Amino acid sequence: MATQLRVLVIVDGPWLVAQVLEYDIGAEAKSFDDLMYQLQKTLVFQVLHDRQENREPFKSLEKAPRKFWEQYEAATPREAELPSSPSDPIPMPKTEVRVAA
Fold first, then answer.
1. Is the distance from CB of 59 to CB of 51 less than 8 angstroms?
2. What pLDDT sits at residue 101?
3. Which of 36-40, 56-60, 82-86 has the highest mean pLDDT?
4. Which of 17, 25, 36, 52 is deepest in the core (most CB within 10 A)?
């Protein structure tokens, strides 16, 4: 797993959608804190699933589509960290979050 993840947050009506750039994986929620929590859960689930399938975590995932990378470049940085727990099967990577206008 990457030691740092770039995450694009897109506002879609009442929803916030997080898209990781290094892997085509994301989450959605109605508040920013919940979004970070849901993204953390999604990443942990992917690691557990990949381990169950005897795969290196995230190796089965492509990078996010190019349009998200382009939106990320134009987006506004926001300080954020993924929540973590000692029971997580992996340490949560550092995140660089940007919010699309």
1. no
2. 79
3. 36-40
4. 36
Tokens for 1, please give them. 């797993």
Q: Are 47 and 92 in contact (CB under 8 A)?
A: no
CA distances from 77 to 7, 10, 39, 86 (A): 10, 12, 17, 28
Q: Which domain holds residue 34?
A: 4-99
Residue 68 CB coordination number (10 Å) = 21
Residue 20 pLDDT: 97
Mean pLDDT of 37-53: 93
- At 27 the pLDDT is 98
Residue closest to 98 by CA, chosen among 70, 85, 79, 82: 79
Number of domains in the chain: 1
Contact 92, 1 (CB under 8 A): no
Phi, psi at 37, each rounded to 5°: -65, -45
CATH code, domain with 49: 3.30.160
